[in-house]
Write a structure and sequence with these properties.
By secondary structure, this protein is mainly alpha-helical. It contains five helices and three strands.
């Protein structure tokens, strides 16, 4: 995983929001890269957020967290799941397949000030 410039600013801008906001913030704070670089940055940021317990995800079989508060799995398992579903052949960050990806993967949950994980 690569080190992403402006990590703190990216997290500050997207905290509490959907995955699409995180991806957009990465692009906004690191202009001039190609889509494959943004994809690498996205998964690097997610890995760090998961490792640092800043985010969790709902389980794939419980995408809104109705049965269990969050997915209790290793970071690698979650990242692999999300990577495998990344759409192939997308042209740019506005591609409809990428937009659908962000709606179809499990919800991201952010650590709140009270210590609970909450979604947007």
């Amino acid at each position: 995983m690569k080190n992403v410039l402006n990590f703190e600013e990216i997290v500050q801008d997207s905290r509490g929001l959907w995955l699409s906001a995180l991806f957009s913030s990465i692009i906004g704070w690191n202009p001039g890269n190609d889509l494959s670089d943004y994809k690498d940055m996205f998964f690097s940021v997610l890995k760090r957020l998961l490792d640092d317990d800043i985010v969790r995800f709902c389980r794939p079989d419980d995408p809104l967290g109705k049965m269990q508060n969050y997915w209790e799995a290793e970071t690698e398992t979650i990242i692999n799941y999300l990577c495998q579903r990344w759409p192939e052949g997308i042209a740019d960050e506005n591609d409809e397949s990428l937009n659908m990806y962000f709606y179809e993967v499990p919800a991201i949950l952010w650590l709140s000030e009270s210590g609970d994980y909450v979604g947007s």
